[in-house]
Specification:
Order of helices and strands: EHEHEHEHEHEHHEH
Number of domains: 1
CATH architecture: 3-Layer(aba) Sandwich
Number of helices: 8
Helix content: 40-55%
Low-confidence stretches: none
CATH topology: Rossmann fold
Number of strands: 7
CATH superfamily: NAD(P)-binding Rossmann-like Domain
Strand order of the largest sheet: 3-2-1-4-5-6-7
Mean pLDDT: 93
Largest sheet: 7 strands, parallel
Structural class: alpha/beta
């Protein structure tokens, strides 16, 4: 197990799946924990297990991030607890259901959780990290951030926000001692799929990664200082080319004249 800077990690969506594994790995690496999720009993069981195995301090912080009052309590915790050195924005929801078959209220709640809650928690944590000159934020995005046709478009749009937000935040905080990483999981063996109505067993086995492997790879990318970590992408040159093309275009995306292809033929 690689080592991490000492401190306290606040992890959202920590009661199961990827969030629970982040809790386990970070505790093994020397972090104390604040575990945030709705399911109190699961949180307590996980906290007791981690305390017993690692000896780390683990605080259970029940909260529903879709509820404004609960969300505000987590924001206050991040602003007031100077011991928190790492925020893992893992909580999120998704679906594979096509856009026109989806309930708009459910989609709005997805945006509230995947976008609004993540943004507010980041805004609560980042100023303290900057003031102290150290800290880190890990945002769990998805491969659909760059492949929105793969699943439901609202889900893809919400995860594209997470990626763009993370990249912009990293750019702004790079010289202030704060690290920002976006993690883009592919299909991962968690209850995410069953919750969305498509059990993971129905997916081709060759595209589904074990959650343990996903988290271990993501944390290795974090230690290496990666801005974006895509554990399933074997050919990293493809991502590098994608990013290079994006940066090449950037200076040319705004101009005072339309491109010649949009000028009316004489």
């Amino acid at each position: 197990m690689t080592s991490f800077q000492p401190g306290t990690a606040l992890i959202t969506g920590a009661s199961s799946g990827i969030g629970a594994l982040y809790a386990d790995r970070l505790a093994q690496g020397g972090y104390d924990l604040v575990l945030v999720a709705r399911n109190v009993e699961r949180l307590k069981a996980l906290a007791n297990d981690i305390r017993t195995r690692t000896g780390r301090a683990v605080e259970v912080f029940p909260a529903d991030l879709n509820d404004a009052v609960s969300l505000a309590k987590v924001e206050a915790k991040l602003r007031q607890d100077a011991g928190i050195t790492l925020l893992v924005n893992n909580a999120g929801s998704g679906t594979h259901t096509p856009l026109l078959d989806s309930d708009v209220e459910q989609m709005s709640r997805m945006i509230d959780l995947n976008v609004t809650a993540l943004t507010r928690l980041t805004y609560a944590a980042a100023p303290g990290f900057v003031a102290r000159g150290s800290g880190a934020i890990i945002n769990i995005s998805s491969i659909v951030a760059i492949s929105p046709e793969t699943l439901n478009g609202v889900y893809g749009g919400s995860k594209a926000f997470v990626l763009a937000f993370s990249q912009s935040l990293r750019h702004e905080l790079a010289d202030k001692g704060v690290r920002v990483q976006a993690v883009l999981p592919g299909a991962t063996a968690t209850d995410f799929w069953a919750t969305g109505g498509l059990p993971v067993e129905h997916l081709p086995a060759e595209i589904v990664m074990r959650a343990e492997d996903l988290v271990d790879a993501a944390l290795l990318g974090f230690e290496r200082g990666e801005a974006v970590t895509i554990p399933s992408l074997h050919q990293v040159e493809e991502w590098n080319a994608y990013e290079a093309a994006r940066h090449t275009m950037a200076p040319h995306l705004s101009s005072n004249t339309p491109a010649p292809r949009y000028r009316a033929a004489v």
